[in-house]
Amino acid sequence: MSATPELAVRREGVERMGFFTDTTVCIGCKACEVACKQWNDLPSDGGELRAGGSYDHTGELSGSTWRHVRFVEAFEPSPATRADAAERLAARGGGQMPRIPAASGGAGPTLDELGGAASGVRSEEVPDLVGWAEENGGPDLGGDVDVAQAVADMDRWVFMSDVCKHCTNAGCLDACPTGAIIRTEFETVVIQADVCNGCGYCIPACPFGVVDRDQIDGRAGKCTLCYDRLEDGLEPACAKACPTDSIQFGRYEELVERAKGRVVELHERGVGGAYLYGAGDTGDDQIAGGLGAFFLLTLPPERFGLPARAEAPIQENVVPATIAAMGAGLLAAAGAAAAFLVRNPDRSRAHRRRRR
Length: 356
Description:
The chain is an alpha+beta fold. The chain is 33% helix and 12% strand. The chain folds into 2 domains: 1-48 and 64-75 and 155-313, Alpha-Beta Plaits; 317-355. The chain has helices at residues 31-40, 79-91, 111-114, 129-136, 147-153, 171-175, 202-205, 227-231, 237-241, 252-268, 313-316, 318-343, 345-355; strands spanning 17-22, 68-73, 157-162, 181-183, 189-191, 212-213, 220-221, 247-251, 275-277, 293-297. The strands form 4 sheets. It has a 4-stranded mixed beta sheet, with helices on one face. The model is unreliable at 98-122 (pLDDT under 50).
């Protein structure tokens, strides 16, 4: 259940502000990432395009990457893959990880050369896309391209600009022992770098994996929803830079109503799978009490690296932990009183006689 959050900063006439991200119009340009890093003076994640690498240089949110555009390939498994999976499940033989040999037959670049772009994949399994293109040709190499098929294949990709969710029930805020994480007058969640001691308690408390330590100074870092810009009445840098209005900023209640209208519009246009993630829910269906930065999705949330359910461990366990702590305290008090009476029976009797 969501509750009215406690604000560390108060100002008259200020309303809750937030982000609404519409993934159906995101083109994966990463302008939001660049704008975020420029405004907040964050280091680059590298921009070299290597054989076997990826356009997604950032890879994930981190202490120095507060915006990350996810590249999600949306395709259905082939009939052969489905049949193989069904056969293995029936035989209880387990599955297997796909092996991706180098397209050109070479060993491929090392993981160090890839800069982590293919983390978890052995070097010999990384395809050499440059070698493949040179071998098979292309528009500039005398080969032919099926334009219609290329345009159709564009629908296989969905992009989502991920960011801190600025939860109503923020686990990171509850876990912080120094008071470095606060809720501002805009009901956004901000980490005060000058108060953070780098303990890291906030990192596992976030159910979205947003918060992380900065590799340089060890302190926690994440999106502030451009708190310094909000104080001056400016739009956050990422939303300002978004060319398609995939990232929309504004008053939270207005954004929710606008997003609901967008879902209705998409349903009328035949996109029946469109839904809101993190907004418009009630009761136990709310995700972390409601997200200050919510999304319009067309695929299950897990495809975007988002949990279907999200509550911080400290919040899930707060009621039983409180009951257990109160019970332990009462037992301790009763034990102390009993020990006192047992050890001092004469004093107890004398006290009763004096009262008479």
